[in-house]
Amino acid sequence: MILDKHQRIHNYLRISLTDNCNLRCFYCMPDVDYSFMPSSQLMQADEITEIAKTFIQLGTTKIRLTGGEPLVRKDADTIIKNLSSLPINLSLTTNGVRLHEFIQTILEAQIKSINISLDTLQADKFHLITKRNNFKRVWDNIQLLLENDIHVKLNVVVMRGINDSEITEFVAWTRDTNIHIRFIEFMPFKGNKWVDDKVFTWQDILATIENKYRWIKLKDEANVTTKNYRVPEHKGTFAVISTITAPFCSTCNRMRLTADGRMKNCLFSKDETDILSAFRRGEDIVPLILGNVEAKALERGGQFVEDFHQLQAVGIENRSMIAIGG
């Protein structure tokens, strides 16, 4: 069992496969000249499997593969197949661009749910946000997953003045489609030019939806990051991830491994533990894992102030989002 000093059990591991990506979303990647990690610096496929086994022995029951974009990694297929043989719930977060190339692997791995990042339903705005013309490909791949009975959770980072006008359009999608839309408050990371007036809050999101739809609150499962809702008679659901205004840290069960094998006990933690170097030296990584989690701060890496309007993003010690893993 992996416990922190606040007696929270940690059984959910997120593994970043790469800090590379085929999109260039400004809120994730600092700039277009970002230097990606060399392959030798990354955890290799067999190392990922063996390190994952150690986490499983300590009580991990769920692993999510993230990036960057995990499916741009050349051996992503091998990694998915290797991990699917382990006794865990395996899932994936992707931008959806290359899903059609991996659909058979996903089906064989029996992955039942996939998170897809999509911040707009407009092709021209997709290009504005991502610097790429891949909207139709992502849209088609979402349909491909739905056709194969894979549950789709759509991650939408809501930014004031950029895509907040589309919130009800996303909710409208849930009317006839069993899809789960997750609206995410804009979060600060190194180099993403976060400012407080771009944050469209949980309350703002619900108020916007309420202007068009009557919603009901759903019961939230244990350890979830989302506040879940449904419009009556709609097949799908929606949720808000309110990291900025109403954090969910009290029941957090998440751990992270960056693509270069460093362990973070929180998305916003400034301290990291080098698991990969110890593993390559043949050392026991169990004490490192337990020590990293034991030291976890009570809330948001211990770096946030209560009033986000007073938050100075430049003072937060962290990597960029693409280097951490979603």
Kindly list the characteristics that best describe this protein.
326 residues, alpha/beta, TIM Barrel, 10 helices
Give your account of this protein's structure.
Helix 3 (99-108) links the parallel strand 3 and strand 4 (113-117). This protein starts with 11 loop residues before the first strand and ends with a helix. It has one domain (12-324): Alpha-Beta Barrel (TIM Barrel), CATH 3.20.20. Helix 1 (45-57) runs parallel beside helix 2. It has helices spanning 45-57, 76-84, 99-108, 123-130, 135-147, 167-173, 202-210, 275-280, 286-294, 321-324, and strands spanning 12-16, 62-66, 89-94, 113-117, 151-158, 180-185, 216-217, 227-230, 237-241, 254-257, 262-264, 273-274. A 12-stranded mixed beta sheet has the order 7-8-9-6-5-4-3-2-1-10-11-12. The protein is built from 10 helices and 12 strands. The mean pLDDT is 92. The radius of gyration is 19 Å and the shape is globular. It is α/β, with parallel strands linked by helices.
